[in-house]
DNA sequence: TAAATTCATAGTAAGCTTATATGATATGGG
DNA sequence: CCCATATCATATAAGCTTACTATGAATTTA
């Protein structure tokens, strides 16, 4: 039940792009420096974000990345699903794709469905803008 | 963000012991047959449950297992924590053990804390008794 | 003593995680 | 045209986790 570094770094990456947006391209090198993360690893992660259109890339000198839309248009859930895959805690509750043959007499499936819903309720209701606007010290859980 | 088979099987195991309780020992062989799971794998899993006192074991012929307490005394959370380890989605939110040096200027930590709380709210409020009482077909999410 | 059971430990194939390494490709500025 | 600076594309790899299987010892009842 862990979120991998890939998913966490992807969120930090998006937040960094939002925080440092000046309208110009932001180089991944700068992001890596600010976030203290491996550039090469971030390159792999941002590939996912660009290919799905969340981030716009510009090659060459003075190239870099920018968010395609506003920070409030991206939820944490969108980013995690892209990098982590499905957020379903067990395969048998993610739609009809991985239906379990025991589904009809499985009495535990409702537990996993409830858990899945709780997870989605959190990650689908926090946006990158929410994270940016959240001061470092003044949040209350 | 997946719950492993170990955790899921442990829950099914506990539910099976609750459902088939007659006051006598229940052999793991029977559980494995009913649940269609590997006996040897279940042996490893139930070791965790016996060592922490959730299940009482009796060796020898006519030996087997019984729940130490009533089904309503065991939450899904208790069982999952035992088998899966911490349910924290990231290490830095599980108490003070794995504190992150970036903690004070990390703006994403509140996301993981909120997620952690949502997960706990679900698993700590469903007991084995709830699962047993939940008919196979008549639950509503 | 034999059968049935739990208990203990070791092994293992496959896949995932978390990167690092190498180099190709594209762009702007001098 | 050349060079520095970027992104883009693959390959590699150590270490860990998952999901078991295997072997056999210890215990208890009939």
Protein described:
The first copy, chain A, has 141 residues and is mainly alpha-helical. Chain A has a domain at 5-85 and 127-138: Arc Repressor Mutant, subunit A (Orthogonal Bundle). Chain A is 47% helix and 6% strand. The first copy, chain A, is built from 6 helices and 2 strands, in the order αααββααα. The first copy, chain A, has helices at residues 5-19, 28-35, 39-51, 76-84, 109-123, 128-133; strands spanning 55-58, 64-67. Chain A has a two-stranded antiparallel sheet with strand order 1-2. In chain A, a hairpin with a 5-residue loop joins strand 1 and strand 2. The radius of gyration of chain A is 18 Å and the shape is elongated. Chain A starts with a helix and ends in an 8-residue tail after the last helix. At the A-B interface, helix 1, helix 4 and helix 5 of A face helix 1, helix 4 and helix 5 of B. Chain A binds a DNA duplex (30 and 30 nucleotides) through helix 3.
Strand and helix map with partners:
The structure is a homodimer of 141-residue chains.
Chain A lengths: L4 H15 L8 H8 L3 H13 L3 E4 L5 E4 L8 H9 L24 H15 L4 H6 L8
Antiparallel strand pairs in A: 1-2
The structure holds a DNA duplex (30 and 30 nucleotides).
């Amino acid at each position: 039940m862990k979120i991998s570094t890939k998913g966490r770094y992807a969120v930090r990456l998006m937040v960094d792009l939002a925080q440092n947006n000046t309208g110009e391209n932001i180089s991944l090198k700068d992001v890596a420096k600010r976030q203290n993360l491996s550039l090469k690893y971030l390159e792999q992660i941002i590939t996912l974000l660009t290919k799905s259109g969340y981030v716009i890339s510009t090659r060459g000198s003075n190239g870099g990345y920018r968010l395609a839309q506003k920070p409030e248009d991206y939820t944490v859930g969108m980013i995690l699903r892209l990098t982590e895959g499905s957020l379903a805690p067990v395969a048998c509750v993610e739609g009809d794709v991985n239906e379990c043959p025991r589904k009809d007499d499985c009495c535990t499936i409702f537990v996993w469905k409830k858990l899945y819903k709780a997870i989605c309720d959190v990650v689908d209701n926090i946006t990158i803008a929410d994270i940016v606007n959240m001061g470092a010290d003044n949040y209350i859980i």
